[in-house]
Amino acid sequence: MACGAIGLTFLMLGCALEDYGVYWPLFVLIFYVISPIPHFIAKRATDDSDAASSACRELAYFFTTGIVVSAFGLPIILARVAVIKWGACGLVLAGNAVIFLTILGFFLVFGRGDDFSWEQW
User: Fold this and answer.
1) Interval 71-85: pLDDT, tens
2) What is the pLDDT of residues 14-51, one digit of tens each?
3) What is the pTM of this model?
4) Which residues, other chains included, contact 74 with Cβ-Cβ below 8 Å and sequence gap of 6+?
5) Euclidean distance between CA atoms 120 and 68, whole angstroms
């Protein structure tokens, strides 16, 4: 929870500091929301936990990777075309790293099929 707040703080600093003042980087919030969706669809579609890998799961990993790479690419493109400053780009990239590592940590801790689940919390 605290890591997500730190990542969002980096994102907001990249937008709201007086030197930057442009809110275009907030579009990466869309990537934060849609990044877990392929995993949820693949988990619902394939319920076989015995298989080491399945085509549906691999396709979900592919789409998730594309979403994450796009989230890192958007601020770089915005900085390259001078819509945002490079300092803001750095803050947004730092926020992206923290947020996506938080999402990954959540799925590593709570995404297993054993008796430990988020419903216990």
Assistant:
1) 999 999 999 999 999
2) 999 989 889 999 999 999 999 999 988 888 887 666 56
3) 0.84
4) 25, 27, 28, 31
5) 29
* Residue whose token pair is 């938080």: 102
Q: How far apart are the first and last CA of the chain?
A: 13
Burial 23-49 (b: 16+ CB within 10 A, else e): eebeebeebbeebbebbeebbeeeeee
d(CA 29, CA 50): 34
Residues 6+ apart with CB under 8 A from 45: 56
Question: 115 is written with which tokens?
Answer: 């008796």
The span from the CA of 95 to the CA of 13, in Å, is 9
pLDDT of 109 strictly over 90: no
Specify the amino acid at residue 108: L
DSSP state of 19: T
Q: CA-to-CA distance for 7 and 105, rounded, in angstroms?
A: 14
